[in-house]
Specification:
Shape: elongated
Oligomer: single chain
Number of strands: 17
Order of helices and strands: EHEEEEHEHEEEEEHEHHEEEEEH
Radius of gyration: 22 Å
Strand content: 15-25%
Distance between the termini: 25 Å
Helix content: 10-25%
Largest sheet: 8 strands, mixed
Length: 363
């Protein structure tokens, strides 16, 4: 399973904020062609979540609101849940957990569902070679890997599958930084602000350090350059439009930046292999034309060309008109929110009903 370092930081911070009672949340992302989960956004407990020593009940309204926005605005599926067993010493899903997940699979017709369990352990009891630690992720050059004393959050992953009684233990592939989809979703208010603890300490057992150090992002937007590009693109886009959305199509690998302008609803579609492969502007009628920017790897240059194309498309036939770029003095259009088409692995409809957290079983 693939997860970003920042998401593990957030889970660890939520667990450390509730050291004697359970806490939890939900996992949104997509399934790869091989059936592995790729986590893009992690939700924490909602404002009305109920925390007990041996049970956690998510805020149903928060899950439905945030989950719906993540599905419709970003094309993500609800692929799993996470919760803590704090200090009770249970590293596996409890019998109640397993019953809840199997009911989720049956009720929603999901072929698989991911469950992550977080526990608290004394740092001195964690062997040096056990799993990947906070300080082992590429780009994390601090001295935290030498930390001793205190408590650490240990995270375990289990994959439940329809028709199979026992879950499979998961292995982690940790990407540095934060998912650009997670960042834009929080900025848009689709998720609550994430915890701001300074470098919480976590361990993900069952994965070797070498495996993570050599794990390369499989999509351009998961690379360091790609994340920076999308964050800058969204920063500029938000100044020009009243709302924006990033969606990912797990089948094709295409990422879309969606918006509405005076001429209708548009999207900039970035193919797998961008910037070597050209981005395209998707018009309201579904037609496509290349975004022939002078510097496609520079967000400002690319969006300037996009604005020229959309302005031209509102008044002229693009097949008979040359590309034009707007001047910096031109006023940006104001958009209405756009519900993006959900995209997923095809086996589970990303628009399916969210699992009901209100039927969770106590541990």
């Amino acid at each position: 399973m693939t997860i970003y370092e920042a998401d593990l930081d957030h889970i660890a911070a939520w667990v450390l904020d509730h050291p004697n009672i359970e806490t939890g949340g939900n996992l949104f992302g997509f399934w790869t062609h091989s059936g592995s989960p790729a986590i893009q956004v992690v939700l924490g407990p909602g404002p009305r979540a109920r925390h007990q020593p041996t049970a956690f009940f998510q805020d149903v309204d928060y899950l439905r609101d945030s989950g719906g926005r993540l599905q419709h605005d970003h094309g993500l599926q609800h692929i799993g849940d996470w919760h803590s067993h704090h200090r009770i010493g249970l590293e596996r899903p409890s019998g109640g957990d397993a019953a809840t997940v199997h009911r989720t699979l049956e009720t929603n017709g999901f072929p698989r569902f991911l469950t992550c369990i977080a526990t608290l352990r004394d740092a001195d009891d964690v062997p040096p070679g056990e799993g990947v630690r906070r300080g082992d992720v590429p780009g994390d050059h601090g001295s935290r890997s030498a930390r001793r004393g205190g408590e650490v959050v240990v995270l375990h992953a289990y994959l439940f599958e329809a028709g199979r009684a026992e879950p499979r233990r998961g292995r982690w592939s940790v990407l540095p930084g934060r998912s650009p989809v997670s960042t834009t979703a929080e900025q848009a208010g689709a998720t609550r602000p994430t915890p701001r603890r300074e470098a919480p300490w976590w361990v993900v057992p069952g994965t070797t350090r070498a495996a993570v150090r050599h794990a390369e992002p499989t999509a351009w937007y998961s690379t360091g350059w790609g994340r920076d590009f999308l964050l800058r693109l969204d920063e500029i886009g938000r100044r020009a439009y009243s709302s924006t959305a990033i969606t990912v199509n797990a089948d094709s690998g295409e990422l879309s930046y969606r918006f509405t302008t005076g001429g209708g609803r548009y999207a900039v579609a970035f193919p797998d292999g961008f910037p070597d492969r050209q981005a395209e502007l998707v018009s309201p009628d579904g037609g496509r034309e290349p975004v022939d920017a002078a510097h496609p790897d520079r967000p400002a240059s690319l969006l300037a060309e996009v604005r020229g194309l959309t302005a031209r498309g509102a008044t002229e036939d693009p097949a008979r008109t040359r590309h034009t770029n707007p001047t910096s003095e031109e006023r940006a259009d104001v958009m209405d929110p756009v519900p993006a088409a959900a995209a997923g692995a095809g086996e589970a409809d990303p628009g399916a009903l969210l699992p009901d957290p209100g039927v969770a079983q106590p541990d």
